[in-house]
Model the fold of this input.
Amino acid sequence: MLSVFLLTCTLSACTGQTIEIQPAVVTLDGPGATQRVIVLLKRGTDIVGDSTVNADFSSANPKVVRIDSSGVLHAVGDGDTVVSTERDGEFAFVKVKVQNTKKPQEISFANHVIPVLTRLGCNSGACHGALAGKGGLKLSLRGYDPDADHFVLTRQANARRVNRQEPARSLFLLKPTLALTHGGGMKLEVKSPEFSVLANWIANGAPGIATQDTKLTRIEAFPPNAVLEPKDTLQMIVRAWYSDGRSEDVTRLAKYSSTEDLVAGVNDLGAVKVTGHGEAAIVVLFGNQVALVRVASPFANDIHSKVFSTSPRNNFIDTLVLKKLEAIKLPPSPQCSGHEFIRRAYLDAIGVLPTPEEARKFTEDTRPDRRARLIDALLERPEFVDYWSYKWADLLLVSSRKLPQPAVRSFANFVKRSVAENKPWDRFARDILTARGNSLRNGEVNYFMLHKDITDLTESTAVTFMGMSITCCRCHNHPMEKWTQDQYWSLANLFAQVAIKNGDRAGEFSVQSAGEGDILHPRRGVAMAPTPLDGKPIAPGKDRREYFVDWLTSPDNPYFAKAFVNRVWRNFMGRGLVEAEDDLRQTNPASNEELLVALARDFVKNKYDTKKLVRTIMLSAAYQRSSSSVAGNKDDDRFYSRYIIRRLPAEVVLDAYSDIAKIPTEFSKVAVGSSGGATATPDYPLGTRALQLPDTQLVSQFLDAFGRPERGQTCACERGQESSVTQALHLNNGQTLNDKLRNKKSRVEEWVTEKVSDDDAIRRVYVLALSRIPTDAEFARFRKLLAEAANDPQVSRREAIEDLFWSVLTSREFLFNR
Amino acid sequence: MIRLDAQRPAHFCDGVTRRDFLYAGAITTLGLTLNDYLQAQQTGQATRDTNCIMLFLVGGPSHIDTWDPKPNAPEEIRGPFRPTATNVNGMQISEIFPRMARHADKFSLIRSVYHTATAVHDTGYQMMQTGRLFAGGIEHPHIGCVLGYVKGARDDMPPHVLVPRPIGRTGGNLPHGHTAGYLGRPHDPFILNADPAVPNFQVPDLLPPAYISAVRANRRQRMRDAVDGAMQSFENNSQARQLDGNFQLAYRLMSSPRAREAFNLDQEPAAVRDRYGRTRFGQSCLLARRLIERGVRFVTVNMFETVFDEVTWDIHGSRPFTNIAQMSREVVPNFDQAYSALLEDLTNRGLYSNTIVTAMGEFGRTPKINPAGGRDHHPGVWTILMGGGPIRGGRVIGESDELGYRPKSRPVTSGEVAATLYRGLGLDVHRELPGPQNRPIPLVDFGVQAIRELF
Done:
């Protein structure tokens, strides 16, 4: 029998579409156990549809299992059998084991009664889960507090709700079945499985929460992924697994949400409906467990496979990007031009514009590997150190907001030295997290001064090095992740033995490992065994910080490398594989998980070498694509079918203004406190670039308006990338750009003195600012406008050239990298 | 002049009268659309548009210490203050608001607002400013941005102005709901980004410097438009479109005399400025009045920029936060003075009859005083204030339970608060906005109603 099925399936696999039942293996445990199954259409390995509605099922042994027309398996008697379905001569089957049908059903309050109350809506916000309860009965919202609910149901209201002597006289059963009036109306059918769960629970003595209760260990959702089209629907199945090895169908009890409602939505019963193109993840929550169903809805493009097979592949990134593009049917844009590439590469890698001379040399270079050579050269530029030091100083909150100036310098120097020597990222993390000694000598020690509070230290470390926010778990289990409050306080306890001692000078203090001390779990009032997330508790006598870093930087750590490569990827690609860049969590999946894993693996293999990672990304054809769309990829904002344009960072724009005007920016005042005061500082000689500042407290209206991060909280969101009216007003009327152009020593002055022609001025501004020659149309427009200015008696030649600079330097092409 | 009670001549098939059509031309010049006009006529509301000032009490005021006193609760709950009578019979508020107490007929208290989302500041900002918690990747628009989207700009003034600055980081990582969300960046509020209380306050860079004449400024804009490389990449990118939109708005603002005047607080007599209080919040309230007077439809005033490093309503007790005593010494008098001045001033100028003033925080605070002498986040129940325009004053809507933990009667959600503001502003709460990818999204969720007792 079995071999026949297998044979049929194997044959039909060759013909294109096949069918499959999920879950493929089901165990029904206990009397009345049920499990819904779905019949899925497959093309190759892809699941492409749900045909459960049209399926006829048959049970090979109806004495073991019965299946109804909607696809629900019902336990009848103990044994093993198979249930099958047929479609156009193809068969699919599910193996069913039925056991313990003779054993009385055991009902757990937490695992059965509460999920039933949740499913029936009894403890929803609209009914008894409301803050004030309803009709005198108050349950915890969706059952988050089972102990309290048990007390309320069994003790309150003179214990009339649950009558252990005469279960049938329990208000708990009489009201929702409308045997007694019930404000909420009819909620519970007497013959329903839900009724029997509640009745059996009472009959068993209405037991409460027992420590030996089986625990929910994991949930799984079916199908794990699917490739569908708009208007397609799919009924998901969710199965829960318990610590005693039992599984149960909890599809109707779980909670669902979609990460992209515009691609696929989901209703309360787990029915998915596809509404647009792209990818969505359906997040399933049950108890404290999370599962995902990934739904891909390819774009409505008809693309020849040659488009993908002939698209350039420079390294493994391209293999994986193109694989995704082909799956989601997005055509890649062609490679960008040479002048686009040089400007882009300079800005993304080192934060400065190429000089006209550099741009010319590159354009004239005819060697086929000129882009690779340029990348290698950029990695060795001193500006590379400035740019990346600034980035990591953002991440580490290097700032005089909380640190005295000498400490800021010491911390900034540590970062800069580390970048300059291309210190491997694991070493960098270790240096910081195990820092000890004097804060003015060992800059990394300041990390602990910034995060003196243990919870802050724990949470900031998680964001900084794992791209993960665990703040929720400080007070309760994470609502969107598997992390529990217990795990949080076990992790926090790894940071409980940091001793800080004040020194004699400003900003001087020292950090040592204390060797004793614990932080207490606030609810339990005890110290948890110091344990990394999902890790093993520390053995006695070991240094806690060392132990944490060993775990963090071990090649198998699932977060450390991913978090870092995602940050670097975002710098170059405009959007993180996971977005936001520091929001890595199971319920926020990457747009290309395979690529994220591959990048992380490559990074680990290369011993956490940052420059190698940068080089790999910049060499990829994906990075070198044009930002212009081709037919069919206009709507792509996350699969890298074209280069994603983005506004330049505040510091980069300001430095570019200084370079182009030849007037450096003055950084002569540093903000003190949050009240708006400032004091003069001699620390930054004229010529210091914005990207060389060790501190974000230097007064600069421009940098504030353009979104310089405050370095107050560890979060990539601190950097503002939006454009605003304030920015536009500042560029129009503010001093920053206007004063640079008006300055007597500016490049404008030089050109006016040398009596520059209109055409020369236009061309030279374009080359300086945009690294390209103006088009004929642009030439024509500017000639006309400059002629108009020449005829305006109110406007001098000098002012006309200023206006020319101004217009190019405020254009979107200048302010954006593309 | 538009008369809404015009007699009814023959109707066209679609129910629109000939006379209405004649008026329609006049209406559009006033920034009204025909639909709004017809709707106003149906509901009998004045065409004199209603405006709104939303005072956002960043940090989350303790309801028990402010507008929902619990004199009969145990000491660790009722706190240090006693209730005081107001000029409305039976309405009591905490004694620390003596000036407000004299204006209680002008505002109503909603004492049963609650939310069930996570008790962090950010969720409350989202819900109170947009009426919804963000989910499914959709960012909803601020009520003021919706108003601006529907009614458009009046004169040269941006329809929605946010003063003095957006709420900064408050611990969470979520959007705060002060933007236009899915309506798109062009409908974002104009953000002041300056402290109106500093001497010689000016909107930064609002005016061109003397050396840039109007002709020159105009030519600069045209030159800027002359650069058009990579046109297609930029047209496809919302960030880039936003940049150009902002340049256009900036140009409109800098060339408008009315806008200049609206932001010029120096034109206010010293006595008026003193009456509001020479604090950032006081002068922001005064600026809000000036802006409303000159055509802005909606002003959001954030009382604080963050809950760190500032003495705010966020009274956890331990550093860096405030405790109850510090709140009553610094935060409360600041609010009491500015709020009462605003109500008085708007009333005296005849603006209160078409300007809603609402004051709200993002949640209440735990009834039980914590060991640090403060109170922590408590979205279980809190009190907000509302009055002006069609919203009645002197009423108390809903109540919290004896200990101030949760609503006891007439619980009110953020959606209902938004619905009330929308109705007060003359918008149909069932009106649909073009959501992401043009998916229609109603102003409030189906079934959510305005608080009818306030009208």
Chain B touches chain A through 73 residues (CB under 8 Å). Confidence is low (pLDDT under 50) at residues 1-47 of chain B. The longest strand of chain B covers residues 51-56.
